[in-house]
Amino acid sequence: MHAYRSHTCADLTIENKGQTVRLAGWVHRVRDHGGVLFIDLRDHYGITQVLCDPDSPVFDAVEKVRSEWCIRIDGEVKARDASLVNPKLPTGEIEVFIRDMEVLGDVKGDLPLQVFGDQEYPEETRLRYRYLDLRREKMQEHMKLRSDVVASIRKRMWDQQFREFQTPIITASSPEGARDFLVPSRLHPGKFYALPQAPQQFKQLLMVSGFDKYFQIAPCFRDEDPRADRSPTDFYQLDMEMSFVTQQDVFDAIQPVLTGIFEEFGGGRNVDQTW
Predict the structure, then answer these.
(1) What's the pLDDT tens digit per position in 40-72?
(2) Are 222 and 182 in contact, with CB atoms under 8 Å apart?
(3) CA nearest 11: which of 116, 96, 136, 137?
(4) In 119-246, which ranges are continuous DSSP H helix?
(5) Would residue 247 be called left, alpha or beta, if left means φ above 0 and alpha means ψ between -120 and 50 degrees?
(6) Is residue 154 within a helix (H) or strand (E), and if so which, with residue range?
(7) Global pTM value
(8) Where do the domains of the chain lie, and which CATH numbers do they carry?
């Protein structure tokens, strides 16, 4: 068996009844029902209910477990009673009886930010304890959505024969609309590199080098005041360039990308096809 898990916390179903499995994740919450301990074990993929009673050889250790401890458990998959099935969870028909447990990471003292629940916290607290903030379901969904949108953009650009190239980050200053972020040079004291505000010069270099279609999910660094729709220091943009094209060719290339993204991730909202 794998050192940490045989399944994720979203994998197990009634088909796994009777199997010995290994799970790893974070303790979402603990409930004590008259000496029977129920733990919602959470990983990136979902939640599985695991339980322990005094018949388990690790009952004393499980009693010490608290929220957001990281643990690995071995146990037997059991079917829940029909009245206890949770239809909201993919794993809602089963639970895992703990036979063995290893604490991979415990928590010292009280958590400064609770992962379970919808309580709001000041931005300063969320940023200071970002590793906890990002464990919350809402933040996990946001991060997954961002990753899925970027992957979809890439596929749509590849489907139109665009090629993705990564342009340099440490470069010379160039005339743009904002102030540069400067990086001092170790080899040339008193001189500075600049972080790119956009890959403008590099993508034009690619075009005159004979590459026909370029795109990049490009990081842009600008020392400017905050805006409502972007970070005050850096942001990412879909950057593209094409050779031997008219303005309409550019519109025709980008329209199916943008409309497709909003159709895929817009939650069923209507997307205007006429620009």
Answers:
(1) 999 999 999 999 999 999 999 999 999 999 999
(2) no
(3) 96
(4) 123-128, 130-133, 137-159, 200-208
(5) alpha
(6) helix 137-159
(7) 0.88
(8) 14-105 (2.40.50.140), 136-266 (3.30.930.10)
